[in-house]
Amino acid sequence: MSEFEQRNQAMIRGMAADAALQAKARALFAAANQHEYSYHFRWLGRPIIQYPQDIVAMQELIWDVKPELIIETGIARGGSLIFSASILQLIGGAGLVVGVDIEIRPHNRQAIEAHPMAKRIKMIEASSIHENTAAQIRALATGRKPVMVFLDSNHTHEHVLRELELYAPLVTKGSYLVVLDTVIEDLPEDAFPNRPWTKTRNPKTAVREFLKRDSRFVVETEIENNLLLTVAPEGFLKCIGD
Ligand SMILES: C[S@@+](CC[C@H](N)C(=O)[O-])C[C@H]1O[C@@H](n2cnc3c(N)ncnc32)[C@H](O)[C@@H]1O
């Protein structure tokens, strides 16, 4: 490891151990969330519902792993699909993104299909936890590797746990499974009014339950420690098993 990297790692460990900084970051996150901060950004023209920090982390993962297939649950307006496709385009090769959403609104579908990155994108309109959806995605994953997965659809404990059961087995050794919005557990109880997820039943509780039974994945804490502000604490999972 270079001196530059060693120094960075020491600084990142220092940030993680800095209780005052962590408290400020949590307070900033909660305050910005009240202004729907994650909705304010676009990637190559399409609205992306992510924090800029997480977008940078995903870029680093995609560039390092160079997946042939990225599976995304939760398309919304398409920004994250366009983002993943654009990094695959820069890498070159045959990389493809498959996105699943229970409802793809016609204007969003049209804009995604008209985008310069569309040739690397396949969309499925269905629930991510239907067996038929998983079967279609398993078929797409056949013969493609590495495979990476981003889960960002319905954030209830049960839904995320089922997505983990269906899609984690497709992630290849050395690649990543990112579970977004684990941060729900760390936010005030009233941060998500009118939503079925809660501080006690959310993507982070699903990840913890999943990790008890699946030894192929470990939480890569260095990523969240580095980001400081992330929607995915305990959600960056590295696949270490065959
Ligand atoms: C947070 S948004 C996705 C944001 C997108 N990944 C991005 O970064 O721009 C969540 C999406 O999940 C979709 N969704 C909700 N329930 C779903 C389900 N059962 N299966 C698939 N998608 C679902 C919603 O329709 C919504 O578009």
Tell me what you see in this structure.
The protein has helices spanning 3-17, 19-33, 52-65, 79-91, 106-113, 131-141, 157-167, 203-213, 221-227; strands at 41-43, 46-48, 69-73, 96-101, 121-125, 147-151, 176-179, 217-219, 236-239. It has 242 residues and is of the alpha/beta class. It has a seven-stranded mixed β-sheet with strand order 5-4-3-6-7-9-8, sandwiched between helices. Strands 1-2 form a two-stranded antiparallel sheet. Strand 4, helix 5 and strand 5 (121-125) form a beta-alpha-beta unit. Helix 3 (52-65) packs parallel to helix 4 and helix 7 packs across helix 8. The radius of gyration is 17 Å and the shape is globular. The mean pLDDT is 97. It binds S-adenosylmethionine. The site of S-adenosylmethionine has 19 residues, from helix 4 and strand 4.
Question: Strands, helices and their partners?
Answer:
Layout: H1 3-17, H2 19-33, E1 41-43, E2 46-48, H3 52-65, E3 69-73, H4 79-91, E4 96-101, H5 106-113, E5 121-125, H6 131-141, E6 147-151, H7 157-167, E7 176-179, H8 203-213, E8 217-219, H9 221-227, E9 236-239
Parallel strand pairs: 3-4, 3-6, 4-5, 6-7
Antiparallel strand pairs: 1-2, 7-9, 8-9
The structure holds S-adenosylmethionine.
Order of helices and strands: HHEEHEHEHEHEHEHEHE
Biggest sheet: strands side by side, in what order? Answer: 5-4-3-6-7-9-8
Strand content: 15-25%
| Poorly predicted regions | none
Which ligands, by name, code or SMILES, are bound? Answer: S-adenosylmethionine
Main beta-sheet strand count, sense and barrel state: 7 strands, mixed
Structural class: alpha/beta
Distance between the termini: 26 Å
Please state the CA-atom Rg, rounded to the nearest Å.
17 Å
Shape: globular
Number of extended strands: 9
**Helical fraction:** 40-55%
- Average pLDDT works out at 97
- Give the helix tally: 9
